[in-house]
Fold this protein.
Amino acid sequence: MARSEEMTRCIELCMSCYQTCLGTAMNHCLETGGKHVEPEHFRLMMACAEMCRTAAHFMLINTPHHKHTCAECAEICGECAEDCARIGGMDECVAICRSCAQSCRAMAA
């Protein structure tokens, strides 16, 4: 069965969010220090990256369980966007997390 354009776009957003969160955490946050490496924030970024990768994987293997992973992904991405916005200096992360959350909410519906 062919994937919908909406699902293909969601997979792309999830993978982009995975790369952005992981890359930002491991480079920007670790090098900046301070609030950027507070355990709660850093764990949230790691959770967001991994959940995005998992959601994309579930959509790629075309399992109906993707609705559950996408719902959780949307929630975590929303939290990550808010936390990155709170700390500041991570506009790219905030933007991709918000886009991914919106797309995942639609896929979970």
About this structure: The mean pLDDT is 96. Residues 20 and 106 are 21 Å apart (CA to CA). The helical segments are 5-32, 39-60, 66-87, 91-108. The two ends are 19 Å apart (CA to CA).
